[in-house]
Each structure stands twice: as structure tokens, then as C-alpha cells.
Amino acid sequence: MNVIELKSTEKNELIDITSKIAELVNLYKPNASTLLIYIPHTTAGITINECYDSAVSYDILSAMNTIAPSNKNYRHMEGNSDGHIKTVLFGNQVLIPICDGKLMLGKWQGIFFCESDGPRNRKVYVQFLKVETEIKNPRSFKECLIKS
Amino acid sequence: MNVIELKSTEKNELIDITSKIAELVNLYKPNASTLLIYIPHTTAGITINECYDSAVSYDILSAMNTIAPSNKNYRHMEGNSDGHIKTVLFGNQVLIPICDGKLMLGKWQGIFFCESDGPRNRKVYVQFLKVETEIKNPRSFKECLIKS
Amino acid sequence: MNVIELKSTEKNELIDITSKIAELVNLYKPNASTLLIYIPHTTAGITINECYDSAVSYDILSAMNTIAPSNKNYRHMEGNSDGHIKTVLFGNQVLIPICDGKLMLGKWQGIFFCESDGPRNRKVYVQFLKVETEIKNPRSFKECLIKS
């Protein structure tokens, strides 16, 4: 398993880790695989969304703050219940297909580490999963493209 | 990797793609596997929920519109921040176990493509992941059924 | 595939199933793998979050009840639309890396079955996915630890 270490600098922050993940994929160069990114924390998650206009990250963080404001009267006394709630909503893992050695992110997609109780030192676990390649495919790729 | 092409017709829409996915599973007939469905977009996601009463989809879309109304004053200027936020909440991937060649969806479960900025032409990526079958199971399936 | 049976006792409840999952991992003792937990229901999901202070679960359930109150005027007539909405937000599957036979949960992480329409008899599916182990790693683990 591979570990990436991060240092967040804000309480709430979407940190673009796409290039770090691409670096790892380039290191192993798996032909066909699926990449698992797993966050071992309870107040930080991971999501995939637009990485070109940083205003998108701002709007996502704002929406999360509306759902889970930091100053609400929570039962958990450590002052970071908002971070736990946001992490449940972000999720703490993503999978991305790898095809012909290429991470199959969509055109506008980037991978964001979702800090919700920073600043902290954080870890990101990365695994490569095996895909079925020996399945006899009775049709060509083109035929497998199912149009509706 | 397999690609399914879709055409959404509404701004916000849950499109039931269960039969298309079942068609693909039937094409490959893997014995034991896990199906990965990955959406390469930033304003469309995927979820698994009830597919029998369409009122459930209506209620899910309504809840998403309450969390991320389209007419709010967002920073991202393309007019689709609500779609980005909803996609973070839906998530952009799901996994479904395949056992004895059968997609292990629960009785009421269907697979929904979650359009949040349509109408658009969209893609759905599908991969089959390998599962551990050669692990020596020291107990029978029945014994592995852990009751609480 | 492995099945765990559960009995929930509340309408909304986070049930800690970490020890049951650990029992299953101990039964198979895979060296390197990824564990998939899949919930085959439409009003129950799964999440990973803090399992030490039960006040965290309370705050998470409260936030979900604010997003999807049970007494709202929903279109779905079975009285459990709130449970469907919450399940979309929780998600119905998680993956956890296994490394050297050990479930790589973070220090504060526990695995929670998210009941949103109980009390009910429920099922949890568990699969072990194969990871790439034969990939030639050109650097040692330490070098693969990418610091930012």
C-alpha cells in the first residue's frame, strides 16, 4: 500500500491532489487497474469534482458549511462535529479506473482531499485493484459502447 | 473498460440504468466479480436506491434542490454550481458485488445516473474488478453468515 | 460472498459493525486485499466515522434529520422518503484496504451500518477484492511515501 502525506492549512479546504496521484500511477504504470484512494481520518474525506475554477471548491465548501455550521450546538464536545458530518457527506474513499496505463478522469475532473478540521498533518492511502482482463469479451470495445 | 452513452433530457434527473448494466453483466457473465460504475463528469453522479416508485426519485431530487438551490448567489459563474454540489453529495461511483454471475442488487435497488446539469450527452464507465476466490475459507458459507 | 445479518432497533441508528467485520477478516486472513461492504437496502447505508464518542453518531443523525425530516410532505406515500434520502447521502458501500492481513482503518475510524427506516432485519454483503501485488515497485515503501 502507498501512503501520501499532506499538511492542510485551513479549517475547511479542498486540496487538489490530482498531480500527486498521477505521480504514483506513473511510478507503477499498471496497464489495466482501478485506483483506490482511502482517507484514514474521521474529519477529512475525498471527492472528485471540477479542478479548473477554484470558485467551484468555494461553493462546495459553502454548501457544506450551511449543512453543518461550525457554531451549532452539537453534543460532541471537541468542537469538530461539523467536520465529522461533512466527512460523512464527502465520503472517505474514491475509485478511479485505469485503462491503458491512463487514469480515466473526465476532462474537468480533479481529485480533492477534503479537509474539514484543519490545519492538520494527514495521510492518504492508495491501492491498485485488479480488474478482470481474461474475461472473454464476445464483442469488440466499439460494440460494448451501448448507446441509448 | 466499457462505456455506456446516455442522453439526459432534464436539468435534474435520476435515470434508471439498471437494465443497461444488467445487459453488460450478461454480456461478460463473470462468475464472481465486483462491478464498478464510474461517472467521468463533474455535474452528474450515480446512486443506488429504490426503482419501483418514481416518487422516491422525485423526493430525492427535491431534497437535493433544497440543499443546493439553482438560483443561489454562487461564486462559480457558469450557473451550475448547484450541479457540482449535488454531484459531490451523490458521489460519482458505485460498486456492486457479482456472485454466481448475478448482480447482487437488493430487492428494491436500482442504479440511477444522477443528472444535475442537463440536458447533456453523458458517459458511464464500467469495469469488472477481481475478487479473492482462492482464499481458503475455513468455514462454509452458512457458517460465514454472522448473526447478531 | 459473505453475509452478515443485523437487527436494528431504532428508526434512525448508527450501528457499529467494526468488530463483526474484523471477525470476518480474521476468518479469511487475506494478506493484501481490499474489503468491500455493500448494503442491499434502499433505506439503510454504510459510513466510516468516529466510533469512540457516541455523541458523534448523535450529531450525524441530527444533521441527517435536519436535511430530511421525517414529517415533511413527501410524494412517496410509504412514509420513509427521509430514509431513502439519507441513504443516498450516506452511500450504500465502503471499501477498506487490507495490508499485511490488517484492516487499515484509521485510529478513530469505525464502520457504521446506517439504519434510516428501522427497526428491521437487515443484511450486509462483504467481498474481498484482489489488489495488484505483482506490480514491480521501482522504489521502496519509504520512497513511495510522497511528502508535500
Q: What does the secondary structure layout of this molecule look like, with pairings?
A:
The structure is a homotrimer of 148-residue chains.
Chain A lengths: L1 E6 L5 E4 L1 H11 L4 E6 L5 E7 L3 H14 L13 H10 L2 E7 L2 E2 L5 E7 L5 E9 L11 H4 L1 E2 L1
Antiparallel strand pairs in A: 1-8, 2-7, 3-5, 3-8, 4-7, 5-6
Description:
The structure is a homotrimer of 148-residue chains. The first copy, chain A, has 148 residues and is an alpha+beta fold. Chain A is built from four helices and nine strands. Chain A has helices at residues 18-28, 54-67, 81-90, 141-144; strands at residues 2-7, 13-16, 33-38, 44-50, 93-99, 102-103, 109-115, 121-129, 146-147. A five-stranded antiparallel β-sheet of chain A has the order 1-8-3-5-6, with helices on one face. In chain A, strand 5 and strand 6 (102-103) form a beta hairpin. Chain A is elongated and about 50 Å long. The N and C termini of chain A lie far apart (39 Å). The model of chain A is unreliable at 136-148 (pLDDT under 50). Chains A and B meet through strand 4, helix 2, strand 5 and strand 9 of A and strand 1, helix 1, strand 3, helix 3 and strand 8 of B. Strand 9 of chain B pairs parallel with strand 1 of chain C.
